[in-house]
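Can you please make up a protein's amino acid sequence together with its fold in token form to help me picture the idea?
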Amino acid sequence: MQQHTVEGNYGVAIVIDACHSCGAFWFDQKEHLQLTPGSTLELIRLMGARTNLPATLARDLACPRCGERLVNTVDIQRNTRFNYFRCPQDDGHFITLFQFLREKNIVRALDVRQINELRKRVKVIRCSNCGAPVSLENESSCSYCQSPVSMIDPVSIQATLAELQQREEARRKVSPTLAADLVMDKLKVEHFYKQLPPDSGPSDLRAGPSLIEAGLGVLVDILRHL
């Protein structure tokens, strides 16, 4: 793992451990609750620029602090379910980038209209969580890990950027209107459809990026210019 120092609430420095090979973070105890909007975007930029989703994790993961086996845990944040691997001794937890994005409400499941529009273009798409093929003709979620077909949510990004400006205006000069306009334009799922060839087959989709990866690439490009 590599260590990254980001700013936490009240100006406290937080050292986050990140594994770029598997695309995941280790948070000691309550570190994830201390992240500011700015530090959240910084972690997404650092990880998103160097990680290919999804991550394939071992079944047995050990806590780097005490050595205990981590427990796969399901939680919910603003009606969005996400999972992570927590230490039974409360030393911290391990979470993939995809699940971190779900926790921060930066990704959302496609609605029925968007799923139907996507079906017109492709038959199979790659799951952003586990990488398994998802047959859109028969399902709207992954049959292996049960994750719904999801996309980067431009509305959530807009809100996060606005909050970033409010909290950190003295330190940063961020234009939430400009960034949000770019995100809304580029991250709309319809924009992704237009870039897909009309007769994409299963092999094409599994070789290319998932919906989250496509949106994450655009988001990282935007964050580089903020």
Q: What stands out?
A: Residues 141 and 148 are 4 Å apart (CA to CA). The first strand starts at residue 2 and ends at 7.
